[in-house]
Amino acid sequence: MPYFVYKITQGPTALVKRLEKLEEYDSFKAARSRARELRAATAEHDNYAIKVMFANTELEAEEQLMVKREEPILREWEK
């Protein structure tokens, strides 16, 4: 299965995200290093995130990225 590198921009609401597939790789090492390069090149005021997604197809990768994950609950001793 391929690794996809995406640029994720927050949309007008918290539920909407704009996804832009940047590149596709066969190995995780190559995808990870490219994502790190792209993250290092971003300026502080840029309003997007770079993520690597492992999936069978591009559609499946985008579906996984659009899933709203619950934020972890911080315990008192973790603060």
What would you say about this model in short?
The chain is α+β, with helices and mostly antiparallel strands. It has helices at about 30-40, 60-65, and strands at about 5-10, 15-25, 50-55. The protein has one domain (about 5-65).
Textual characterization of the structure:
The protein has 79 residues and is of the alpha+beta class. The chain has one domain (3-63). It has 2 helices and 3 strands. It has helices at residues 28-41, 58-66, and strands at residues 3-10, 17-25, 48-54. The chain has a 3-stranded antiparallel beta sheet with strand order 2-1-3, with helices on both faces. The protein starts with a strand and ends in a 13-residue tail after the last helix.
Shape: globular
Oligomer: single chain
Mean pLDDT: 88
User: Helical percent range?
Assistant: 25-40%
Write the layout of secondary structure elements.
Elements: E1 3-10, E2 17-25, H1 28-41, E3 48-54, H2 58-66
Antiparallel strand pairs: 1-2, 1-3
